[in-house]
Amino acid sequence: MTDKIIPVIMAGGKGTRLWPLSRASAPKQFIQFTDDLSLFQKTLERISDSSHYEAPVVITNEDFRFLVAEQARELDIKLSGVLLEPTARNTAPAVAAAAAFVMKKFGDDAIIQVLASDHEIVSGESYQEAIDIAFKTAKADKLVTFGIMPTEPATGYGYIEVGKDLGDGAKAVKRFVEKPDADKAAAMLSAGGFLWNSGIFMFGAAQVLSEMQKYAPAVADAAAASVAKAQNDLDFVRLDAEAFGKATDISIDYAIMEKTANAAVVPSSFSWSDMGSWDAVWKLGKQDTDGNVALGNATVVNTRNSLVMSRTSHLAVQGLDGVAVIASEDAVYVGKLDESQSVGSLVKLLGSTKGTAALTQTHPTSYRPWGGYTSILNGDRFQVKRLFVTPGKKLSLQKHHHRSEHWICVKGTAEVTVGDEIKIVRENESVYIPQGEVHRLANPGKIMLEMIEVQTGSYLGEDDIIRIVDEFGRG
């Protein structure tokens, strides 16, 4: 039993609307945009006040489990559980599974707050006031959503029409409105009584499951069974694949919020963005006197109202107005800021072409439970990578059939196993791993270990790994 809110963070999305930084394997919730924290980490910070919140529950997918764990560890934030969805089934099954898990852990009276992991929110006094109103309303058996006071006739958000006053600052939901065109959005703002649908919810775990059983029983039954048959794996909870797969692929809005008689909305004035386009990133960035946001390796000259970001080569932009220029390690996007909502259609085009499909799926930087690597250079029979290993972590004891490796330590201290020998490799020292030799890399130090790895051989694919011992349970 608890009298605090249990946060449920949805972190399984693979959206690509912020391409080329965001990819299917590196979605926007785990990326740093305007400062040193990812959107997921900012979400964790907002619910870190232990006087109001229990430790959060995160629901994500297999691919992102170690990203979730590592980014929480960096902030020293404990998690009540990390639920792994075996397949994507939209938000209704995810919420139902999380609610069933929370009831099992915290009791039938638990109140949960469902948060997206990829929103940008300023959590000041108005935010806390909205949370307090929602908590009281949820305790009265209402299913609460947060409606944001609109500041412009945005076409990228759904809307909520406000109904009667419920007291304590909450309103009944009259109806939900799909993302409108520009004329309809302007008309709603002119009429008043409409709010942006934030996709943030608060309700009793038992209450939302009761409503789910009424309006979407297949979802409720599948989610409950997936939790009942779940398996623990290290610090993760694997929802049962067969049971979860029987859930309908449907959003929580369609499943219950648009049907229930108990929907309530808290009109909220805090700053909020779903970070769904480069235009949104520009609006939230620190603009210079010409309205430009320049981040990373970027210089702007005679340019106005533009977003220029580079994680790699230096970008110099001259004589443009209202554009987004975004450079990742392997791709550059250039487009009009006011058309950035359409990046998804560009990504679909790239994904449908064999020569560019990989640019929408994989990112040059990949994360692993021990840290990760960035691909620097690929050639015929060789490739170069930058490895980074978290303090105290180690790679699997492994060998490769088709390649040899050269490791050069550039930061920190490495513990390297080669065959029967274990050696310490310090900065500016190197070690050679012959083809077929059993080896392992570990970071015994207190700072991030960085190595340059040069692979040579007839085949350099990631599947040429024979794991002999792996503390993360990978085959």
Automatic annotation (TrEMBL):
Signal peptide: none annotated. It holds the Pfam family MannoseP_isomer. It comes from the Bacteria. InterPro entries: GMPP_N, Man1P_GuaTrfase/Man6P_Isoase, Man6P_isomerase-2_C, Mannose-6P_isomerase_type2, NTP_transferase_dom, Nucleotide-diphossugar_trans, RmlC-like_jellyroll, RmlC_Cupin_sf. The keyword Zinc-finger does not apply. GO terms for molecular function: GTP binding; mannose-1-phosphate guanylyltransferase (GTP) activity. The keyword 4Fe-4S does not apply. One of its GO terms (biological process) is polysaccharide biosynthetic process. Its EC number is 2.7.7.13. Keywords: GTP-binding, Nucleotide-binding, Nucleotidyltransferase, Transferase. Residues 359-469 form the Mannose-6-phosphate isomerase type II C-terminal domain. Residues 7-289 form the Nucleotidyl transferase domain. It catalyses: alpha-D-mannose 1-phosphate + GTP + H(+) = GDP-alpha-D-mannose + diphosphate. Belongs to the mannose-6-phosphate isomerase type 2 family. This is mannose-1-phosphate guanylyltransferase. The lineage of its organism: Bacteria, Pseudomonadati, Pseudomonadota, Alphaproteobacteria, Hyphomicrobiales.
